Protein backbone atom coordinates (compact mmCIF):
# COMPACT_ATOMS: atom_id res chain seq x y z
CA UNK A 1 0.00 0.00 0.00
CA UNK A 2 2.35 2.64 -1.30
CA UNK A 3 -0.49 5.16 -1.07
CA UNK A 4 -0.54 4.99 2.71
CA UNK A 5 3.03 5.13 3.97
CA UNK A 6 2.73 4.04 7.60
CA UNK A 7 2.57 0.90 9.73
CA UNK A 8 -0.69 -1.02 9.93
CA UNK A 9 -0.83 -0.42 13.69
CA UNK A 10 -0.64 3.37 13.22
CA UNK A 11 -3.15 3.32 10.38
CA UNK A 12 -5.58 1.37 12.54
CA UNK A 13 -5.14 3.93 15.36
CA UNK A 14 -5.86 6.74 12.87
CA UNK A 15 -9.26 5.22 12.11
CA UNK A 16 -10.39 5.95 15.67
CA UNK A 17 -13.68 4.06 16.08
CA UNK A 18 -14.55 4.04 12.38
CA UNK A 19 -14.35 0.39 11.28
CA UNK A 20 -17.35 -0.10 8.97
CA UNK A 21 -16.15 -3.26 7.23
CA UNK A 22 -14.68 -4.92 10.32
CA UNK A 23 -17.79 -4.02 12.34
CA UNK A 24 -20.06 -5.40 9.62
CA UNK A 25 -18.14 -8.68 9.52
CA UNK A 26 -18.19 -9.04 13.31
CA UNK A 27 -21.77 -7.73 13.70
CA UNK A 28 -22.85 -10.82 15.67
CA UNK A 29 -20.11 -10.27 18.25
CA UNK A 30 -20.11 -8.14 21.37
CA UNK A 31 -18.63 -4.64 21.40
CA UNK A 32 -15.54 -5.73 23.38
CA UNK A 33 -14.86 -8.45 20.79
CA UNK A 34 -15.17 -5.92 17.96
CA UNK A 35 -12.77 -3.58 19.76
CA UNK A 36 -10.26 -6.45 20.03
CA UNK A 37 -10.71 -7.11 16.32
CA UNK A 38 -10.08 -3.48 15.44
CA UNK A 39 -6.62 -3.26 17.00
CA UNK A 40 -3.35 -4.47 15.56
CA UNK A 41 -2.69 -7.96 16.84
CA UNK A 42 0.55 -9.76 17.57
CA UNK A 43 1.74 -12.85 15.75
CA UNK A 44 4.81 -15.05 15.78
CA UNK A 45 5.86 -15.18 12.15
CA UNK A 46 9.02 -17.16 12.84
CA UNK A 47 7.27 -19.79 14.97
CA UNK A 48 4.87 -20.85 12.21
CA UNK A 49 7.44 -22.58 10.05
CA UNK A 50 5.79 -25.98 9.68
CA UNK A 51 2.24 -26.88 8.75
CA UNK A 52 1.77 -29.11 11.79
CA UNK A 53 2.24 -26.07 14.06
CA UNK A 54 -1.31 -25.12 13.10
CA UNK A 55 -2.56 -28.18 14.98
CA UNK A 56 -1.15 -27.00 18.32
CA UNK A 57 -3.87 -26.35 20.88
CA UNK A 58 -2.33 -23.46 22.77
CA UNK A 59 -0.87 -20.06 22.09
CA UNK A 60 2.88 -20.21 21.53
CA UNK A 61 4.96 -19.14 24.55
CA UNK A 62 6.05 -15.52 24.88
CA UNK A 63 9.68 -16.31 24.03
CA UNK A 64 8.48 -17.60 20.63
CA UNK A 65 6.78 -14.31 19.78
CA UNK A 66 8.99 -12.29 17.47
CA UNK A 67 7.67 -9.47 15.40
CA UNK A 68 9.17 -8.77 12.00
CA UNK A 69 10.87 -5.58 13.18
CA UNK A 70 11.69 -6.33 16.83
CA UNK A 71 13.23 -9.29 18.59
CA UNK A 72 10.67 -9.80 21.35
CA UNK A 73 7.17 -8.60 22.15
CA UNK A 74 6.15 -6.95 25.39
CA UNK A 75 4.32 -8.70 28.21
CA UNK A 76 1.29 -6.46 27.49
CA UNK A 77 1.21 -7.57 23.86
CA UNK A 78 1.41 -11.21 24.93
CA UNK A 79 -1.49 -10.73 27.36
CA UNK A 80 -3.38 -9.09 24.52
CA UNK A 81 -2.74 -12.14 22.29
CA UNK A 82 -3.97 -14.42 25.10
CA UNK A 83 -7.10 -12.27 25.46
CA UNK A 84 -7.79 -12.51 21.71
CA UNK A 85 -7.27 -16.30 21.86
CA UNK A 86 -9.73 -16.62 24.75
CA UNK A 87 -12.31 -14.07 23.55
CA UNK A 88 -12.62 -15.59 20.09
CA UNK A 89 -12.50 -19.14 21.50
CA UNK A 90 -9.52 -20.26 19.46
CA UNK A 91 -8.87 -23.97 19.83
CA UNK A 92 -5.82 -24.31 17.58
CA UNK A 93 -3.07 -22.10 16.20
CA UNK A 94 -4.76 -22.45 12.82
CA UNK A 95 -7.87 -20.73 14.19
CA UNK A 96 -5.74 -17.96 15.72
CA UNK A 97 -3.80 -17.64 12.45
CA UNK A 98 -6.99 -17.43 10.37
CA UNK A 99 -8.48 -14.85 12.74
CA UNK A 100 -5.26 -12.81 12.57
CA UNK A 101 -5.31 -12.84 8.75
CA UNK A 102 -9.03 -12.08 8.57
CA UNK A 103 -8.67 -9.09 10.87
CA UNK A 104 -5.63 -7.84 8.92
CA UNK A 105 -7.55 -7.99 5.64
CA UNK A 106 -10.62 -6.32 7.15
CA UNK A 107 -8.44 -3.63 8.72
CA UNK A 108 -6.77 -2.95 5.37
CA UNK A 109 -10.21 -2.74 3.78
CA UNK A 110 -11.32 -0.19 6.41
CA UNK A 111 -8.13 1.83 5.92
CA UNK A 112 -8.42 1.76 2.14
CA UNK A 113 -12.10 2.73 2.29
CA UNK A 114 -11.27 5.71 4.52
CA UNK A 115 -8.44 6.72 2.20
CA UNK A 116 -10.77 6.44 -0.77
CA UNK A 117 -13.39 8.63 0.97
CA UNK A 118 -10.71 11.20 1.82
CA UNK A 119 -9.48 11.31 -1.79
CA UNK A 120 -13.04 11.73 -3.05
CA UNK A 121 -13.76 14.43 -0.46
CA UNK A 122 -10.65 16.53 -1.12
CA UNK A 123 -9.74 15.80 -4.73
CA UNK A 124 -12.88 14.23 -6.22
CA UNK A 125 -10.64 11.39 -7.41
CA UNK A 126 -11.16 7.70 -6.76
CA UNK A 127 -7.86 6.27 -5.51
CA UNK A 128 -8.88 2.80 -6.75
CA UNK A 129 -8.34 4.01 -10.32
CA UNK A 130 -4.62 4.58 -9.69
CA UNK A 131 -1.87 2.00 -9.39
CA UNK A 132 0.72 4.31 -7.84
CA UNK A 133 0.89 7.53 -5.87
CA UNK A 134 2.53 9.72 -8.56
CA UNK A 135 -0.40 9.29 -10.94
CA UNK A 136 -2.91 10.20 -8.21
CA UNK A 137 -0.80 13.16 -7.10
CA UNK A 138 -0.43 14.35 -10.70
CA UNK A 139 -4.18 14.37 -11.28
CA UNK A 140 -4.85 15.90 -7.84
CA UNK A 141 -2.46 18.78 -8.51
CA UNK A 142 -4.13 19.70 -11.76
CA UNK A 143 -7.61 19.44 -10.24
CA UNK A 144 -6.60 21.78 -7.43
CA UNK A 145 -4.78 24.43 -9.46
CA UNK A 146 -7.35 24.24 -12.28
CA UNK A 147 -4.77 24.78 -14.99
CA UNK A 148 -5.04 23.13 -18.36
CA UNK A 149 -1.76 21.99 -19.83
CA UNK A 150 -1.17 22.45 -23.49
CA UNK A 151 0.07 19.54 -25.52
CA UNK A 152 3.83 19.44 -25.79
CA UNK A 153 5.19 20.43 -29.14
CA UNK A 154 8.80 20.33 -28.01
CA UNK A 155 10.10 16.79 -27.59
CA UNK A 156 12.62 17.89 -24.92
CA UNK A 157 9.71 19.02 -22.68
CA UNK A 158 8.03 15.64 -23.13
CA UNK A 159 11.28 13.86 -22.27
CA UNK A 160 11.76 16.07 -19.20
CA UNK A 161 8.33 15.12 -17.83
CA UNK A 162 8.83 11.44 -18.58
CA UNK A 163 12.24 11.45 -16.90
CA UNK A 164 10.85 12.98 -13.70
CA UNK A 165 8.26 10.25 -13.26
CA UNK A 166 9.43 7.66 -10.79
CA UNK A 167 6.59 5.21 -11.02
CA UNK A 168 7.52 1.65 -10.39
CA UNK A 169 6.14 -1.33 -8.61
CA UNK A 170 8.35 -2.69 -5.87
CA UNK A 171 7.75 -5.95 -4.12
CA UNK A 172 9.69 -6.63 -0.95
CA UNK A 173 9.63 -10.33 -0.18
CA UNK A 174 10.69 -11.15 3.34
CA UNK A 175 10.02 -14.87 3.58
CA UNK A 176 11.45 -17.88 1.87
CA UNK A 177 9.57 -21.13 2.05
CA UNK A 178 10.61 -24.33 0.36
CA UNK A 179 7.87 -26.87 -0.23
CA UNK A 180 8.43 -30.54 0.47
CA UNK A 181 5.58 -32.90 -0.37
CA UNK A 182 5.13 -36.20 -2.23
CA UNK A 183 3.56 -34.48 -5.25
CA UNK A 184 6.95 -32.95 -6.04
CA UNK A 185 8.20 -36.28 -7.42
CA UNK A 186 12.03 -36.31 -7.45
CA UNK A 187 12.33 -33.07 -5.48
CA UNK A 188 10.48 -34.62 -2.51
CA UNK A 189 12.76 -35.44 0.43
CA UNK A 190 11.05 -38.06 2.66
CA UNK A 191 13.60 -37.51 5.44
CA UNK A 192 12.33 -33.94 5.96
CA UNK A 193 8.89 -32.85 7.26
CA UNK A 194 6.12 -32.64 4.69
CA UNK A 195 5.04 -29.08 3.98
TrEMBL record:
It comes from the Eukaryota. This is 24576_t:CDS:1. It comes from Cetraspora pellucida. The lineage of its organism: Eukaryota, Fungi, Fungi incertae sedis, Mucoromycota, Glomeromycotina.
